[in-house]
Amino acid sequence: MLFEDFGLDKRLMSTVEHLGFAEPTEIQQQAIPVAMTGQDLIASSKTGSGKTLAFILPAMQRLIKNRALSKRDPRVLILTPTRELAKQVFGQLRLFTGGTQFKSVLILGGENFNDQVKVLEKDPHFIVATPGRLADHLTKGHFYLNGLELLILDEADRMLDLGFAKELSLINNKADHRKRQTLMFSATLDHAQVNEFAMQLLNKPKRIAIGAAH
Ligand code: ADP
Ligand code: MG
Question: Where do the DEAD-box RNA helicase Q domain residues begin and end (predicted)?
Fold first, then answer.
């Protein structure tokens, strides 16, 4: 299978070509087509297997295809457990949003709160964030998730291990409407709390487990 087979917009394909990847990884091959149908998804594969592009490509494709669907931003929220991971995901996302109309922001714990308020007021299309700080902004009413189309939980197992269950529930409730799509990624699906959360947050999800023992 090739990246061409996904039917991605040609601007996305040119960035993929620029990255020089010969073919999609297994998780990308399985997750991208499912995510592009708009279905909810819970997927696992080991660290280093290419999960970031497995959600960035369908997210970008969705916004390019439905440019005018939502007037209310943000449209895509990507949550990651740590500042370092958020920065890495943001770096990858920027490769794809660069030169497009889509604005993306990074909202991390430990950084200046008021600067983040200003950035959130500019209605970014994409937010990449750690859960604690994002939940803070939501609670204080600095922005809303009423128009959120896509919620992505990267490394859901680690977010839960780090004690972010309360923040994730709050964010989920503030972005709760029927047309939202939710993608959940984890190193393993063998994690009771991940499954419990999947039942709360996802709507009839497709399950993909790469390299699982069963
Ligand atoms: P994970 O989130 O599963 O730990 P990452 O998305 O961080 O994995 O990707 C790990 C590394 O693999 C990154 O350096 C990324 O650029 C690279 N990578 C991603 N997709 C491909 C691909 N299709 N072919 C080769 N390398 C890839
Ligand atoms: Mg990752």
Answer: 1-29
Q: How far apart are CA 153 and CA 185, in angstroms?
A: 6
Domain 3-209 maps to which CATH number in 3.80.10.10, 3.40.50.300, 3.40.50.720, 3.30.565.10? 3.40.50.300
138-188 pLDDT, tens digit per residue, is: 999 988 998 899 999 999 999 999 999 999 999 999 997 778 999 999 998
d(CA 201, CA 208): 16
Site to probe by mutation for ligand 1, drawn from 23, 53, 188 as the one with most ligand atoms within 8 Å of Cβ, is 53
Q: How far is the CA of 49 from the centre of ligand 1 (A)?
A: 5
ipTM value: 0.99
Amino acid (one-letter) located at 46:
K
